[in-house]
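Model the whole thing, not chain by chain.
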Amino acid sequence: MTTPAIETTNLTRRFGDFVAVDAITLSVARGEVFGFLGANGAGKTTAIRMLIGLLAPSDGEATVAGANVRTDPATVRRRIGYMSQRFSLYDDLTVRENVELYGTIYGLSRAEIRSRMTELLERIQLTASRDTLVRQLPLGWKQQLALMVALLHRPEVVFLDEPTGGVDPITRRRFWELIYATAAEGTTVLVTTHYLDEAEYCDRLSIMVDGRIAAMGTPAEVRAQVGVSTLDEVFLTLTRAVAAP
Amino acid sequence: MSAFRGLVRKETLHLLRDRQTLAILFLLPVVSVLLFGFAVRTDVRAIPIVVVDVAPDAATRALIARFAQSEQFQLHGTLRSEATLDALFQAGTVRQAIVLPTETDRRLVRGERVVVGLITDASDPNTGRVMEGYAGALLRRWHAERAGVAPSGGVSLLTRMRFNPTLESVNLFVPGLIALILTIVAAMMTAISITREKERGTMELLLVSPLRPSAVVLGKVAPYVVLGMANMLTVLLAARGVFGVPMRGHPLVLLGASLLYVIASLGLGILISTKAETERTAIMAALAGLLLPTLMLSGFIFPLEAMPRPLWAISHLIPARWFLTIVRGVMVKGAGLADLWRELAILAAMSVALLGIGIRRLAIRLP
C-alpha cells in the first residue's frame, strides 16, 4: 500500500517537433481522487493515453498500478479501468449485454459477471432496465453505467476522461458520489474535467498548461500557490500567463 | 476462449439489431441476380487457340500461319488428334479449337466443299460469340486465298459452343455476382464496422482491455465470414431457382474458394479501416477501391482478353479475378481441383497475406 497508484518521472511525448507532454512528474496515492485539469490541447489526453498503455512515451517513466507502462503495458491494462470522454458503450446492445461483453473481455467467469452486475446495477438503480437497449437510456444513466462497466473487473486505478460532459448538475452530483464511493473502496481515481467546481471535490489536482504541470496540490494549496481565491481564477491566471506574448 | 466468444456474440448482435442493413444484405443478392440480366459486348484479343490438324499439307500450314500471325489469336500449337482437346478446354489452356479435315489442300484445289470444325469456349457467352466471329472471318479469308477469287465449293463451318451451348448470360453473371456480393459483405461491412467503432470511441475501450488487438479484430470479423457464406448460398439458390444455372463441378470446391475469397475481402476491409477515419470514408474507399475493380478488372463485365495490357497486368492483383475463374470453372465447365489448383493456390496466398497485413497494420495503427 506504500507504492503510489500512479507515478511518473519526466514523462514526455513528442509528435515530430511538437511536444505534447513535456516532462511531467507526478505521484498519485492509492485511494486518492486526483483531478487532472487543463485547457483543451494542453496535453491531458495524450498524458492519459500514455498512462493507460495506448501510447508509448517518448521519454521518461511511468508506473501505473505497480506496472511500467513502457515495458509492461499488458499488465497495466489488466489492472486499470477506463471511461473515455466519448460515450463508449454499445447503443444497440442492452445494459446486460454490454456488461457481459466487458466481463468476458476481462476474463471474468459467468458467476462473477452475474454477481457484480447485480451489485453495480443496484448501486446506480438500473436493475429494472437491465434488458433495455442502452440507446433508450437518458444520457446521465448511460454515463453512470459506463462508470460501472469501467469498474466491473475491480481495477486498482480508474481513469475517467471528462465523465460528466453534457449532463445536468443533479446527475453530475450523483456521479461524484459514485466517484467518492469508488475511492472509499480503495480504487484510485484520476479524473479530467472542464468544470472547475468539480475540481474542488478532488483530494488533489494538477493543472496542465502547454504540456507542463503548472500547478499541483490540494485545491487549497493550488489557490495559495497562485495567490487567488477560486480555482476559476487559478485556471485563468495560469492559462493567460502562457497565452500572453 | 471466452473473450473471443464474447466479441463474436456482440458483433452478431450488432448485425441482428441493425434490421435495415441486414435486410439490404439479404435482398441485395436476390435483387442483383434479377437485375443483372444484361451483358456487355466487347472485342477480344489473344484468344488461346489450338489447331487439330490430322493431315498437314500446304493449305493447313497456311491456315496455321495465319492464326500465328493474327493479333486476335494466340496459337497454342497444333495437335494430331482431338484426344487431349477436352482437357485443354477444361483447364482453360485454350478457349477455341479448329478441327481440320483430311486432304484439305486437294479438296480446295478441286473446288470441293471443305468442312472445318470450330469449337469455342462459351462459358463467357459474349466473348464466345466474338471469338467465333473472329475465327470464322479468318477461315473465310484463308479459303478465299487458297481456292481462288471465285471459290466454287466454299468453306462450311461446323461450329460448336462448349460448356454453355445456349449462351446463357446468367451463367456469366452469376459467378461475378457472387464475387461482388462477397466483396460488399465481407470487405465493405468489415471496413464500416471497424471504422464505426473507431468513430464512436468504443474501439478505444476494447484496446484498453487486456485483449490483443489481433484478437479484437478477429472477433469482429468472424460473423462476417458466416454472413458472406450465407449470402453466397442465397445467390446460388436464386440463380438456380430462377434461371436454372448449372453446377457441373463439385460444390465443395466452390465453397472452399468462397471461404478463401471472403477471407481475402475481410483483409481488404481491415486495410481500408486502417486508413479511413469515418464510416463515410470507409464506404467511399470500399466502393472506389474494391467494388469498381471487382466489377471492371476481374473479367466480370469486360473480358480479360480484351483489356489493354496495363489493366490486364493489374487484374492479376485482384482476388476477384482468380475467384471468378474458379467459380466459372466449377459451375459452368465442371472443373475440379486438378484444373483449378493454381487459381486456388493464388487465392489462398492472397487471403493469408491480406488478412495478415490487415490485422498487423490495424494493430499498429490503433494505439
